[in-house]
């Protein structure tokens, strides 16, 4: 007999009480305590969810050496970006364990690269095409996965980049209609294990709100070696970013080896072999590299070798970075470069540039460049203007790349209102600023039915040295204030245009190239890039506070 507090209890009674306490206090895995509601979501807004497994209960009875467990409802995995929808369930979740592996479902052999990568990252065995065992992760490619009913699936969680991740019975199953979706499911699993040690029980249904989610780096003004670029690609892939812009030609440098015009290449540059490795790595991570040879402005490095093609004003003064768009030889030179590098960059996109042509920054372009003005009138009649020649330049360069079936892009200040011609309708507008002379507001492009990509310089421009009133962007401002609808300044465009805004990119510009080292840049963009990835994946108000998001980012590394 045991005496306690003046009362006498039996040893058997004590064992029963301890069993009940243990049953109620053992907890499952997840990002926080259960609230018992059965509803959870990755970000702002409530996604209705149902309990995915029956609750196990403990009934008082004889003492047992192995008390039964009651798991609280799971919470969504802690990831960046947050998952769009998570259906809670009761259970221990899944943890990597010795002997566990990554298996491919029959017919999913195309996922071998994704499976091998995940196996290396989580220190699991790679099983190839095999039946999944207890403790395994199974990857499934199912073209019909996004077409069937998807209970509780949020808007955006369908399509080739969507996936469903189910955790139950000590297994994880990732199903998607395309390889990219499966890959993003493995990124969620990797981050969940890193942030909380386990993948919580339940079902994740996830997919991006916007199809274009990118990072752009100006490698022309500042050289970045292949290792630095590859590190950014791996970082971006874990954030479910799917584009990497490579601005490799500008006034200060031309940074990729050339066979057709070797004299334009800067001393510090990437070889074509290095670029092929970069492109191959990006492809394996489901990232498209978007090259940019900016023209007809920003061609100073090319003009240093071919000064006869440089634009001169009425006084005979050379205009920095600008080619003479009235000279057919200038177009032929740029087209040769475009065709040369089209082989090196086989991806679906190409950036034509088109911005800041210095002839059009003069108060009276026609008076400053009478030869161009005369050429414009010859081409487009008495109302023809130099801006019509600049527009035609972009359209002509597009013709050099269209045989490859690429989707083309140009900066917004290369599109002019009221001209005799217009940039081709299928060329995507990369909207970066409203600060340039004559800049058009974003609603003008949207009202014309044009597709637009958001690179708002108020939030998404990391400009070395902070010239021209640029401040280094903060992750907090992006996280708390920016959405894809905020194309210019701080005000969003009307929501009716939302589907025309295809996504956005965070951009690193190296105006003062020595202001930061590559390592400082990598650290400086880490939080802004993560905030951008979050808002492109899901633009709703995040459920985590900024401080919680920042802490999670540090935990994930």
TrEMBL record:
The active site is at residue 356. This is Beta-N-acetylglucosaminidase. Residues 31-95 are annotated as: Disordered. Residues 213-516 form the Glycoside hydrolase family 20 catalytic domain. It comes from Streptomyces clavuligerus. It comes from the Bacteria. GO terms for biological process: carbohydrate metabolic process. Residues 78-206 form the Beta-hexosaminidase bacterial type N-terminal domain. InterPro entries: Beta_hexosaminidase_sua/sub, GH, GH20_Enzymes, Glyco_hydro_20_cat, Hex-like_dom2, HEX_bac_N. Residues 31-45 have a biased composition (Gly residues). Gene3D superfamilies: Chitobiase/beta-hexosaminidase domain 2-like (3.30.379.10), Glycosidases (3.20.20.80). The keyword Chloroplast does not apply.
